[in-house]
Amino acid sequence: MRLLEEKIISEGRVLSDQVLKVDSFLNHQIDPFLMNEIGKEFALRFANEGITKIVTLESSGIAPAVMAGLYMNVPVVFARKRKSLTLTDDLLSASVHSFTKNETNEISISNKYLDEDDRVLVIDDFLANGQAALGLVEIVKQSGAKVNGIGIVIEKSFQQGAEKLKEFGFRVESLARIASLSNGEVQFINEKVGELV
Amino acid sequence: MRLLEEKIISEGRVLSDQVLKVDSFLNHQIDPFLMNEIGKEFALRFANEGITKIVTLESSGIAPAVMAGLYMNVPVVFARKRKSLTLTDDLLSASVHSFTKNETNEISISNKYLDEDDRVLVIDDFLANGQAALGLVEIVKQSGAKVNGIGIVIEKSFQQGAEKLKEFGFRVESLARIASLSNGEVQFINEKVGELV
């Protein structure tokens, strides 16, 4: 997605060969116009999947997921990273390790909001090793619902997550695919001639 | 806001005289259509305040804030509830106690995303004792920016938050104002004759 790639080039900060910081438009400050375009793009790419629900993870997944939900006309459920005292219902849970933050979180969704008839689109901000996406997939499976697609804002294609998810048979659509962060530069996977490399 | 009040009546669950649970459309599952209407309504109410930035708190503030940001054409910054290892910039911070969850969080925003020229709209999902809103106000003040309004999705008017914020001189706009949760029933403050009571 050209607009997103341009934003990453102009505002993303490469902290290491592994870490891209996009705090100015996605992970801390949010650009609502860009989120709206991202929502439209996910809706377009998954238009034929019969999606009935979007599942994401707090906090950075919420903005792109809600915009996608608006254009797909389906509810969004966000998994919480720890249990809330007022969330007393039966929980579907999975363990997710973040290598970037070096911490493991229990992520949970109330079983009230996933039904075995649901066709679920999982949306997340980043895909690196696939831990968060796999945790969300595990939760959806516990409910008996089906994962019909995985939508990612920024994929670090040099890590194993996308490949792993595709091996499991999931359709993964990433709006920006990063081939490398070496030498402090963002290199995208060149999917169409004439696009940003 | 009629649509929101109807949603609260049909889907909200009164857990006690103090606690209203709206996990089906705001705090866990999110209704994107309703969030879109909420965003429009905030944009309308604060149209003349010259707002340059919206500040909210993860996670439940993000959806209404991003929709408001879309219609007001301004960026959104969400305060985080704990420090992230990749968030290395100088932080503006405040302590916020949640009586509902019985826990105190340090909330933080990077000083990169608030400027002393900013005219800030603070948005949050609930207003009860005003702790979260006051924490956000404190952070905005640390940056030198000005709080030009506080937009709340659901105000529990029988608690002290709204009064406190108004005494401090802030303009508070709450889209649903709850007079009482007694006897398991939601009673709204009746602002216009003919509206839901």
TrEMBL record, chains A, B:
Enzyme class: transferase
Reactions this protein catalyses: XMP + diphosphate = xanthine + 5-phospho-alpha-D-ribose 1-diphosphate
Binding-site list for 5-phospho-alpha-D-ribose 1-diphosphate: 128-132
Enzyme Commission numbers on file: 2.4.2.22
Coiled-coil regions listed in the entry: none
SUPFAM superfamilies with a match to the protein in the record: PRTase-like
Keywords of this entry: Cytoplasm, Glycosyltransferase, Purine salvage, Transferase
Protein name: Xanthine phosphoribosyltransferase
